Amino acid sequence: MTIVDIHTHVYPPAYMDLLRSRDTVPYVRTFPPSTEERLIILPGEDSSNSSTARGRPIGPEYYDFSYKIAFMDQHKIDISVVSLANPWLDFLPPSEAAETAMLINDDMDASCGLYPGRLYAFGTLPLSASVEEITEEIRRLKGMPWIRGVVMGTSGLGNGLDDERLNPVYEALEETGQTMFLHPHYGLPTEVYGPRASEYGHVLPLALGFPLETTIAVARLILSGVFDKYPGLTLLLAHSGGTLPFLAGRLESVIAHDAHLKDTNTAPKRSIWDVLSKNLILDAVVYSSVGLKAAVDVAGADRVLFGTDHPFFPPLEGEEDQPWLSVTTNYKAINDSFGLERGIAEGVLGDNAVRLLNLGFGRQSTGCGLEKI
Ligand code: 5CU
What we know:
This protein is α/β, with parallel strands linked by helices and 373 residues long. The chain has helices spanning 13-20, 65-74, 94-113, 131-142, 167-176, 203-223, 226-229, 244-256, 259-263, 272-278, 289-299, 325-338, 342-356; strands at 4-10, 27-30, 37-40, 56-57, 79-84, 119-124, 147-152, 179-182, 235-237, 280-283, 304-305. The strands form two sheets. It has an eight-stranded parallel beta sheet. A three-stranded antiparallel beta sheet has the order 2-3-4.
């Protein structure tokens, strides 16, 4: 069995330099008297007075590829498809974006090459640059040995993913056969969390804001007809598609009842179920068999892929040497859901990723992740 982690992040050294040079979100700095570096990336987390709510500690597990490999070994992961973590290059001035994307992508590809067959990557796009520069980078990525697609947030060129100016980007992704890994960052407007939000740490924005952001972004893409126009476009959705598996029926029904869409003949031509089973791949980063079974129900057992979200959600203090709860929970959900149907479990754990992302076979697993739990 090959175990593949398709949702695993890194901030390569060139990106760390960028974060350390900044003093507005996103940035990395220390808060004396502590000498520990902290990473401040999420909208809203800059203003908290509490040190444990203000960003998160950042160490070499975020930027040193040898830590990624050690984490993989600890958790019996054979292959990882790494991606730059949020907020990618969204915040860069247009004049710096294209060059920085090339630097980061070259760095990612070369780092994967140091561990042949164990690391692949999703590239990063210079989304504040011109559309020509973005599509040029997509075509350049296609020629890189370890790159298998691109990671993207939900803001697109600034107006979201249903922006028609993105059509050349979708066209280039479809044409080059590269998967777009859609990942949240911006969440919901912070007011929805209320005046007591900071008392609740990161729970509301991460547990709910992230998946709802993804759900809305994909719904907008479907409504805009992007999948009618680009039927070969493939998106991998973070966190099992947010709440899309649960709400797909409602979305479909509301579309069918909308007089405006009917009058203007603008309803998407393909059903959501069809898009889910042909254009969307869901990760298995959902931490329960309830969510995982819903993901498999809507996308199909051959389109759900194991992931960890490493290095986010590390063990809390005192548990550093233990297997990561965030990982064992996802292994357990796979075992609880499909332990008796090994073909499905093996597909979700790695075979699907190998096939869909053309990973070839990594070194043989030293053990099945399920045996860990
Ligand atoms: O803990 C967090 O803030 C995050 C994040 O920003 N991005 C991510 O992918 N997971 C957790």
